[in-house]
Automatic annotation (TrEMBL):
It comes from Rhizobium altiplani. Keywords: Magnesium, Metal-binding, Thiamine biosynthesis, Transferase. It is an enzyme of class 2 (transferase). Residues 8-189 form the Thiamine phosphate synthase/TenI domain. Binds 1 Mg(2+) ion per subunit. The gene is thiE. This is Thiamine-phosphate synthase. Condenses 4-methyl-5-(beta-hydroxyethyl)thiazole monophosphate (THZ-P) and 2-methyl-4-amino-5-hydroxymethyl pyrimidine pyrophosphate (HMP-PP) to form thiamine monophosphate (TMP). 4-amino-2-methyl-5-(diphosphooxymethyl)pyrimidine binds at residues 38-42, 70, 109, 138. Mg(2+) binds at residues 71, 90.
Amino acid sequence: MRTIDLSLYLVLDPDLCAGIGMVETARAAVAGGASVVQLRDKHADTALMIKTGRALKAALSGTGALLVVNDDVEAAVAIGADALHIGQEDMDAPTARARIGDAMILGLSVETEALAGRVDPAIVDYAGIGPVFATSTKADHKEPIGFDGLARLVRACPVPAVAIGGLKAAHVGNVFAAGADGLAVVSAICGTHDPEAAAREIFEHIRRVPR
């Protein structure tokens, strides 16, 4: 299995990041402790995703943080991203794996215990589980599952899991207590006046979690 440090997973939002841009937000967040940066832009075409992704890859070079592309397989391959993340409605995991090859990390969103249990660890490297809470950064999200639901899905899932959905620094303990390997955040970093400080606050909470 291809491995990924899911502890602090930043999902970029182009609208929230508009003040300083996605690249500078990512650079600052990684300086504060983010281990993963996902490029998610539902309104961008593949050409723009590639342009932004290449700028992000250059900005993250040498930091150890991994770059994930959301949904767009063609962009992920063209960028040479570290990972592709897909949802249940995007394409099936075997097709995505065939498109990206064996070396690239593949993440898959799961929202129910049934879906979590059907994840194939020979194909998928990690799961994004949620939403834990309702969030305005993803208008079409499924029903929130809460921390109890997170724990149930993590137990059912055969691959490492990152929790997502309205999460902030104050939720770090609950996320890890539920068995997840990290938390994905959007507004807790994107759009803040100091993304590096916001990431560092979350990272310090993570460091204090007994594991």
